[in-house]
Amino acid sequence: ICLREIANVMCARASLAGESGVDELKREAMSVLGYGRMTQKVSARLQQGLELAVREQRLESVAGRIRLAG
Predict the structure, then answer these.
(1) What residues form DSSP beta bridges with 21?
(2) Percent of the chain predicted with pLDDT > 90
(3) Where are the beta strands (DSSP E) in the chain?
């Protein structure tokens, strides 16, 4: 799954949740994207998608919590 799609799902989930922990957001995205288990490879890919969303200033990380930027 491309990083842009992962970032989009994380932004959508963050908009519903308001604020989430990194692991919680990864698990929610994993479920939406159809991943079965949180393997190291899946976790790393989700982390890359999260980092893309943060770099693009769509999400922000504050004290280990993730929320929509702005």
Answers:
(1) 65
(2) 89
(3) 19-21, 59-62, 65-68
